[in-house]
Amino acid sequence: MRFFNQGVELTEYTDSIPLLKFHKRQMVYVFLLCFGMGISLQAAAQGISQQDSILLDSLNAQPGRLLQDSTQATILERAQQMQVLNKYQECRHFLKSIEDVIDKAPSKNDYFQARIRQQLSTTEAHMGNAQACYRYGKQVLSAFENLPEPDTALLRNNYQILASASKQLGYREEALHYCDRWLQMTDEKETPLQKAHVLNMMGLIHSHLFNQRAAQEYFRQCYDLRAQHAPESLPSVINDIGLMYLHFQRYDSAIVWLKKGLEFRHSNLDEQILIHATLSTHMSDAYFQLGKKDSALQYSENALVIRAQYQSLKVDTMQMAVLDHIDILMNSENRQLAQAFIEEVTPFIQSNKNPALESRLYVSKAKMSMHFQQVDNAIRYYNLALHTLDTSFIKGSALFPDSLYIPLQPDLSLINTLESKADALDQQYTGQKDKTFLLAAIANMEKAVEYMNRYMYRHPGSISDPVVYYHQKRLVDKSLSLLYQLYRLDKEQVSLQTLSRLLEIERINSVRKNLIYQQLILQNPQADSLQKEWQYLNEALRIQASRNASDSSVTYDSLTEILHTTDIQFQQQFGNYHRLAIEESTTIPAPLPGSLSENKALVQYFFAGDVLHCIFATGPQFKWYAIPWESEQKKLLHEVQVMLRNPQVQTYDRLSDLGRVLLPFLKNVQPEELVIMPHGPLHHLPFEALKIREDYLIQHHSIAYLQSLARTAGPERKPRYFLGFAPFYSSGTKTSIGKVGVAYHAQPVYLTLHNSQDEITLTGGFFESSYFQGPQATEFAFRQSLAKQDIIHLATHTLLDDENPLFSRILLAKDSLHDGKLYIHELFTLPLQAQLVVLSACNQINQDKGEGLTSLATGFYMAGVNKLMLTHWPVPEGENTAVLEDFYKHWRKQGEAMPQALQSAKREYLTTNDEASQHPYYWAGLVLHQNQYLSDKGFGIPWKTLFSIMAVLTGLAFLFIFYKRRS
């Protein structure tokens, strides 16, 4: 078959589209018209270029002329003319030269400089340099907003440019912010099509954020405006609506809209050809997802036929369409036809020298080889694809001069190629049992994980896209599976650092996903801008250090100084946000073997599909258990959770059964302290209540829970100041939860806390205490009383929400300024310095994911708290107060570390109460979470140690007196 060289009979298809029936004479006229316009435009451009040179020379000689209004108007007019003529390179050079002259001028006009930068932002947008467009746009925005009388039209235009650039860079929430600002400033003079463009952009962004209801509403408004004022532009918005439904996996709805788009006819032939080809391609995707391969293949062929008549095979878009069609053919089992297309398009793509297309071609060849079980060939093609992507470069025009080159950032195509290559190597290992293939598969998968982490870090908005987030999680799961195969084969070749870092990446991204997805990090564009600037500078510094950049005008030292200054500014203004956005995203340390002792163990859990991975580390050694997690184990966990929360259920044997499943490492070793890092539903399980050899785990092991290995804490000081809050709830009081995000929740009934005021007075008796009780325990009083408090004890209801974790909330008394609901996201900006926060009455909406509890701990950590003590369920007040009082006694008076003090308090409770009161419901719910791995060793000398020292000293004194008397 020679599809492109011999041509294709298109009569049947072209007859169905009247606009494709062009007379030859009309085509000649069109060609001559375009040719004549091209000559005139070229001549005009050359004339402008000469005038620019004269103007720049005169301005360099007399910079003061820039202060004249007429000169400024001439410069801006010239820039706009060059943009109209598509002379963007010349326009950029011209405007940057004007900026140089501005620096030489005797005095500066900030407004005129902002206008120049706005023109630069527009130029960079036309050239597709989103980062440079974004940078200039932010500078212009700062200048325009600070003017005494801002120019509304210019400000609105800048909002639109910034919205588009932010969207391209993945800063979706920021793009929505600028779109909202643009809509707020729209007046009656604004054209409806501009408003439709902004509404369309908001629909696309909400689609990527999986806000289906909002996306549908914005697309509806856009469709109505275009239908009323420009019906010929409807196919483009219809295409976007179809894409939205594809994104939400509503394929039938997508097909309905895409077919509607194919029915439209456009007065512009080129635009109709392009939109028809695009719509057909998306129709093919929708049918393929529905399993209708014949229809998918038909529409893919239609798209290809349309492009084939009006585009040369040498055109990039045509070659990409062929590659899309090849994928459809392979997925439809038409491998011979796919192979023929590959052979046809290969010479054109290789001569084109486009890295994206070339790597995509190699991936298609690799997939074809995998179809024919030619794994060696597949691996070779994957290597070629990776080499093509790794050696491609782009210019970095965001914050740096043109002479500084930045390597192409890892994109999803590179990550997918690494993943596919690792899968092929794993298959090769399965067949040949050669460890070399397994090691190569692990290396490629780990690289894919690292690149995905860097991709999500460089594009903060992408982490809120479930497709990207779960892709990253899938990569981590596959890496764990490969590493576990290696661990069973050769334990010495798997390190604890590698495993811990892999799991830490997933934990941090999970937390960041919740923060960004809820759009409530700080709601501060300035903080977001500082983070992005820090990212760009740090990336450039890394590249500069690894390359010979002697030709660059930006030196390594100057970049270092700029980065240092930016980092200090970020930390000073937004310290808590800096910890999560910068420190934990770029530095993910693993525990050093020296930080583990034989008496202390780190236990990490991680769910990967139907397997629960358990990594037990003590001393320099670690053991790895892959625990099946299927319906039987899920049912067991559910039964235990029901029992723990209901003292009437006494199925103690289930505690032993779950202990054998989750604690297999305790058969041979008995560390005194367990630091547990739970995952998923295990966040809601107090391990203290599990049974080993007929005893509760807490009777032989102190237990603390850890959120992240990336966090460290400073030295612990002796606690002195205690702040207690005990709002009063009458029996049966309902607290309305209302609407959270897009979800409605039930309205739980909170029980009376009869002993809450006694609880804070008894436990606060060990410290210098301040109390707020009843109606005085308001949210305003809490915010005003935080400074210099070592312990904050909240004897009030806390509601944990797994579905909307940042909307978990602490209930306080209402006041004139606040509703009494302190949401977790509100903690991020509070100046907390407490060593310990105690929440003694937690409730939960659900217990599926554990994200509510994780975000609760993260919220307090972001606010500056080191340790958090909370209850998994509303524990009876009398028993809870007794355990807390004993805990404070062991911690404050006897100087024990917090995990050991809580263990001592629970052991005392078990030994002093009858059998009925020993049910875990009464004591196991209270747990300790810490935000650093190395727990404190107490701030005093434990009484047992002190007694031993005194006994030894007394014995030595008696011996000394005895020998002295004998002598």
Secondary structure tally: strands: 21
The first-level CATH class of the domain at 721-936 is given as Alpha Beta
| Helix share bin | 55-70%
The CATH topology assignment of the domain at 721-936 is Rossmann fold
InterPro entries: CHAT_dom (IPR024983), TPR-like_helical_dom_sf (IPR011990), TPR_rpt (IPR019734)
Pfam families: CHAT, TPR_8
Protein name: CHAT domain-containing protein
Transmembrane segments: 27-45, 941-963
Quick gist of this model?
Keywords: Membrane, Transmembrane, Transmembrane helix. This is CHAT domain-containing protein. By secondary structure, the chain is of the alpha/beta class.
Structural features:
967 residues, alpha/beta, Nucleotidyltransferase, domain 5, Rossmann fold, 13-stranded mixed sheet, two-stranded antiparallel ribbon, 21 strands, TPR_rpt, CHAT domain-containing protein
SSE diagram, text form:
Blueprint: H1 11-15, H2 24-61, H3 69-84, H4 88-104, H5 110-126, H6 130-145, H7 152-169, H8 172-184, H9 192-208, H10 212-229, H11 234-247, H12 251-262, H13 269-289, H14 293-310, H15 316-331, H16 335-352, H17 355-371, H18 375-390, E1 393-395, E2 405-407, H19 412-432, H20 435-458, H21 466-489, H22 496-517, H23 525-546, H24 556-573, H25 575-586, E3 600-608, E4 611-618, E5 621-628, H26 631-644, H27 652-662, E6 673-677, E7 691-692, E8 695-696, E9 702-706, E10 721-726, E11 733-734, E12 739-740, E13 743-744, E14 749-750, H28 756-763, E15 768-773, H29 779-784, E16 791-800, E17 809-811, E18 821-823, E19 836-844, H30 851-862, E20 867-871, H31 877-893, H32 898-912, E21 926-930, H33 943-966
Parallel strand pairs: 3-6, 6-9, 9-21, 10-15, 10-16, 16-19, 19-20
Antiparallel strand pairs: 1-2, 3-4, 4-5, 7-8, 11-14, 12-13, 16-17, 17-18, 20-21
Helix pairs in contact: 2-4, 3-4, 3-5, 4-5, 5-6, 6-7, 7-8, 8-9, 9-10, 9-11, 10-11, 11-12, 11-13, 12-13, 13-14, 14-15, 15-16, 15-17, 16-17, 17-18, 18-19, 19-20, 20-21, 21-22, 22-25, 23-24, 23-25, 24-25, 26-27, 28-31, 31-32
